[in-house]
Amino acid sequence: ILSSSAHSHDEYQKTADWLMSQTKHRPQVAIICGSGLGMLADTLKCQDSFAYSDIPGFPQSTVQGHAGRLVFGELKGKTCVCMQGRSNFPSVHQTTFPIRVFKLLGVETLIVTNAAGSLADGFQPGDIMIIKDHINFPGLVGLNPLCGLNDDKFGPRFPAMSGCYDKGLRCLAAEIAKELGVAGFLQEGVYAMVGGPNFETIAEARLLHRLGVDAVGMSTAPEVVVAAHCGLRVFGLSLITNKVVKSYEDTESVNHEGVLEVGRLRSHSVQQLVTELVGRMEINNNDNINKSV
Ligand SMILES: O=P(O)(O)O[C@H]1O[C@H](CO)[C@@H](O)[C@H]1O
Ligand code: HPA
């Protein structure tokens, strides 16, 4: 059942070829903008942008607050491709389709951002969390984008996931945060992906807290798994948009509009951090298009 929705190599290649015929940009870095964080894409210079619905084979954005555009352009001297919105809820294969297309375009580093609720006691809405590691709950029970026949051209059947969030980039981001004066609300922690689309019950929240989860959301882990599988370097940021309700006495509850609102309030800081990181990260030669895959 799971393998039936996986894509063939040709399908990724067709989409990559179409994009390369439509833009001269050959991106080195791909950035996925989470809920309320899409304005980062607007800052790219010399833009070429495409509605997802116009790109052959591309999954559509299904989440409110996600524009559904793929934007190519320059950021601090690096060529980037930016997903202004993700499609969280069709299937893990569809959600992660763009990652392999990026690989075929020559991308070597993936930056993922998301909105997330906090479980960690010291975290506040508005904090920015560098993702140190993740727990892929859907993946642990078999909803894994690598299920189905393995495509050896992308990576091995049993890829390692330890160290999938690059340590060098995490250190560089922490240094940059200090310089930008945002270290006061910078955190580092473990992101857990749950299936969603409902927010957590109080009992689920308590379980996640006990398991050592710092922040929870409904995305990102599958993208990172597919990226690590095909050898992309990964950096991830969660914007903490709400505290997850853990007490039966608590009368507050989370909603998507609130998530988007905090996203907008802090998006400038997230944008600054990502921009500086892209500017200062070292990139190997962008001559691997179609060679390693
Ligand atoms: O992970 P991103 O795309 O930021 O979206 C987050 O925000 C939505 C909930 O408000 C969920 O889709 C959750 O995963
Ligand atoms: O509290 C949350 N739970 C799950 N996903 C989320 N995305 C933003 N906030 C949350």
From TrEMBL:
EC number: 2.4.2.1
Catalytic reaction equation(s): inosine + phosphate = alpha-D-ribose 1-phosphate + hypoxanthine; 2'-deoxyguanosine + phosphate = 2-deoxy-alpha-D-ribose 1-phosphate + guanine; 2'-deoxyinosine + phosphate = 2-deoxy-alpha-D-ribose 1-phosphate + hypoxanthine; guanosine + phosphate = alpha-D-ribose 1-phosphate + guanine
Biological processes, Gene Ontology terms: purine ribonucleoside salvage
Family per similarity comment: Belongs to the PNP/MTAP phosphorylase family.
Pathway field: Purine metabolism; purine nucleoside salvage
GO (cellular component) term, any one: cytoplasm
Residue intervals of the Nucleoside phosphorylase domain: 29-278
SUPFAM superfamilies: Purine and uridine phosphorylases
Protein name: Purine nucleoside phosphorylase
Molecular-function GO term, any one: purine-nucleoside phosphorylase activity
InterPro entries the UniProt entry points to: Nucleoside_phosphorylase_d (IPR000845), Nucleoside_phosphorylase_sf (IPR035994), Pur_Nuc_Pase_Ino/Guo-sp (IPR011270), Purine_phosphorylase (IPR011268)
TM helices/strands, residue ranges: none
Keywords in alphabetical order: Glycosyltransferase, Purine salvage, Transferase
UniProt keyword Ribonucleoprotein, yes or no: no
PANTHER family assigned to the protein according to its UniProt record, in alphabetical order: METHYLTHIOADENOSINE/PURINE NUCLEOSIDE PHOSPHORYLASE (PTHR11904), PURINE NUCLEOSIDE PHOSPHORYLASE (PTHR11904:SF13)
Function: The purine nucleoside phosphorylases catalyze the phosphorolytic breakdown of the N-glycosidic bond in the beta-(deoxy)ribonucleoside molecules, with the formation of the corresponding free purine bases and pentose-1-phosphate. Catalyzes the phosphorolytic breakdown of the N-glycosidic bond in the beta-(deoxy)ribonucleoside molecules, with the formation of the corresponding free purine bases and pentose-1-phosphate. Preferentially acts on 6-oxopurine nucleosides including inosine and guanosine.
Domain of life: Eukaryota
Taxonomic source organism: Amphilophus citrinellus
